[in-house]
Amino acid sequence: MAGRKKESQYQKAAEQILKQKGIDINEWRRDVLNKRKLEIMSDQDKDWTEKTIDEEATKLVIEAIRLNQLKIDTNNPTHN
C-alpha cells in the first residue's frame, strides 16, 4: 500500500500467526485500533492522556520561548 510505513518484524510475525488462526490481518488491525481509540476517548488510557498533554505543553512552552513571550517570575515559583 502506497504511503504506508514498512511493517516491523513483529507485525510480520503477527500476520503469520493470525493467518494460521484464520484471522484476517486487516480486520484484526481495525479491531485493535478501534479498541484503543475507544479507550482514549473514554479517558481509560491515562498514560496516553498524560503523555499527549505533556508533549503538547512542551510544544507550547518551546513556541512561547521562541517567540519570547514566556515571562517567568523567578521570585514566585508557584506562577512559573
Secondary-structure map:
Elements: H1 9-20, H2 25-41, H3 46-66
Explain this structure to me?
- The N and C termini lie far apart (48 Å).
- With 80 residues, this protein is mostly helical.
- The relative contact order is 0.05.
- It is built from three helices and no strands.
Instruction: Tell me, briefly, the overall form.
Output: elongated
Number of helices: 3
Helix-strand sequence: HHH
**Helix share of residues?**
55-70%
Please tell me how large the radius of gyration is. 21 Å
Largest β sheet strand count, sense and barrel closure: none
Relative strand content: under 5%
Average the pLDDT over all residues and give the rounded result. Answer: 85
Span from first to last CA? Answer: 48 Å
- SSE-based structural type: mainly alpha
Poorly predicted segments: none
Number of strands: 0
Highlighted features:
single chain, 80 residues, mainly alpha, 0% strand, elongated
Q: What's the short story on this structure?
A:
By secondary structure, this protein is mainly alpha-helical.
